[in-house]
Design a protein that fits this description.
Layout (H helix, E strand, L loop, with lengths): L2 H9 L8 H7 L4 E3 L5 E3 L2 H8 L4 E2 L7 H7 L18 H10 L15 H13 L6 E3 H6 L1 H11 L6 H13 L7 H31 L5 H7 L9 H32 L1 H9 L4 H11 L6 E6 L3 E3 L2 E3 L4 E4 L1 H4 L34 H18 E2 L2 E2 L19 E3 L2 E2 L2
Parallel strand pairs: 2-8
Antiparallel strand pairs: 1-2, 3-5, 4-11, 5-8, 6-7, 9-12, 10-11
Helix pairs in contact: 1-2, 6-8, 6-16, 8-12, 9-10, 10-11, 10-12, 12-16, 14-16
Length: 411
């Protein structure tokens, strides 16, 4: 099996329900090069090493022109990249400014103090399922929960959700590798349009916060000063857009993949029902076993790098296949089995290194509260279809719908 066929099959929608056998094939060689140009790294230790390697760049401007064009990853000249698409020192400055109103060291209790508010949102959504014998977990719970949360944190009106939902879907789809040059060009243009419309929307909200400050992140980013100074207006827009999209896209998948996994493992579901403390290690195992982010396709090399005898040249496009790494048998015992209290679970679900997931503490808490409430309060849940229909996105992988039959809702 060539790497060309494997990459095509991994991104083929027909294999979205279960890409893991393909990752196992890919791991036979830690590094392979696809015909279209990207180098795919699929094994745990090699991925983790690269995530900590200063010779790996997240800035698309460091790709060679040929690699950028082949991957449809040209830099958008109309809007600068968010901090996850930058390297130090600019990445570090913007990340510190973003963290000031969100978490340590300046607001260390921000996520912890949201516990009660998150429980209230979860309870309200589950209450809304009363009187139903079938629910769609995505539309009825997994999507509205994290969207409500990130809107409250940022200060984005929840009633505008229909607008940014479409923009978010288009921008997230831009991460997906696509086939022909025409498809790549259409993808690039669609992402640029969506980013421009979202930027214009956020610019209006930010201006409102300058005039009338509130207790939200948009206000903090627009008005606060610190040791690193203040974000420029464009930097506020790109950071807010990143947090709005990343703040719900991945968590929707984490919760949905989690419930799907529990329904496929009824013994574990019953354990969580009677042992709510199991939620903490269980969510870590979900991040390893069914991660919402399957690959990190937007990386490049700042120098020639030798990995297991393969030289990845400077400026090459690099795909870090994190979902494959988290099932690497060289790192995890019995990696294809879901073990809710797996010891030493140093998965790659939130990445590693300087680009480790900004919102990991919030995503963890959201998933823990959501899954605990769902298994406690839904009576007799069972899958209506398995596998369920999946989203098109191969990078941010999860069911588009998850129909579940229930016999009632417990108080």
């Amino acid at each position: 099996m060539t790497s060309v066929a494997l990459l095509h099959r991994i991104t083929d929608y027909a294999n979205r329900p279960d890409p893991y056998p393909l990752y196992a094939e890919l791991r036979r060689t830690p590094v392979v090069r696809d015909e279209s140009g990207p180098y795919l790294v699929s094994t745990y230790w090699e991925i983790k090493g690269l995530l900590h390697d200063p010779r790996i760049s997240s800035d698309l401007r460091n790709l060679t022109p040929e690699a950028a064009k082949a991957g449809g990853q040209e830099h958008d000249p109309n809007l600068p990249p968010a901090f996850i698409r930058l390297d130090p020192p600019e990445h570090d400055r913007l990340r510190r400014l973003s963290m000031r109103p969100f978490g340590p060291p300046h607001t260390p209790r921000r996520v912890f103090d949201m516990h009660g508010e998150l429980e209230e949102i979860v309870s309200g959504l589950v209450d809304g399922l009363r009187g139903r014998d079938t629910i769609d977990l995505v539309d009825d719970f997994s999507y509205p929960f994290p969207v409500t949360v990130i809107c409250r944190i940022l200060g984005v009106p929840r009633e505008d959700e229909s607008h940014f939902h479409e923009w978010a879907d288009t921008i997230a789809a831009g991460l997906d590798p696509v086939g022909t040059a025409e498809e790549r060009e259409a993808q690039v243009q669609g992402v640029r349009r969506a980013r421009g419309e979202l930027a214009a929307y956020l610019a209006g909200l930010i201006e409102e916060r300058r005039r009338s400050p509130r207790d939200d992140m948009l206000t903090a980013m627009a008005t606060e000063h610190g040791p690193d100074g203040q974000m420029s207006p464009v930097e506020i827009i790109t950071t807010a857009a990143l947090l709005l999209i990343a703040g719900h896209e991945t968590t929707v998948n984490l919760i949905t993949n989690g419930m799907l996994t529990l329904l496929r493992n009824p013994d574990v579901l019953q354990r969580l029902r009677t042992e709510p403390g199991l939620a903490v290690p269980l969510v870590e195992e979900l991040l390893r076993f069914e991660p919402p982010v399957q690959m990190l396709p937007q990386r490049t090399t700042l120098a020639d790098i030798d990995i297991d005898g393969t030289i990845i040249p400077k400026g090459a496009s690099l795909y870090l296949m994190v979902a494959s790494g988290s099932r690497d048998p060289q790192r995890f015992t019995d990696p294809d089995r879901f073990i809710p209290d797996r010891p030493d679970n140093q998965h790659l679900g939130f990445g590693h290194g300087l680009h480790n997931c900004f919102g990991a503490p919030l995503a963890r808490l959201e998933a823990q509260l959501a899954l605990t409430a769902l298994v406690r309060r839904l009576n007799g849940p069972s899958l209506v279809e398995d596998p369920p229909p999946y989203r098109q996105n191969a990078v941010l992988r999860g069911p588009r719908h998850l129909p579940i039959a229930i016999s009632g809702v417990t108080d």
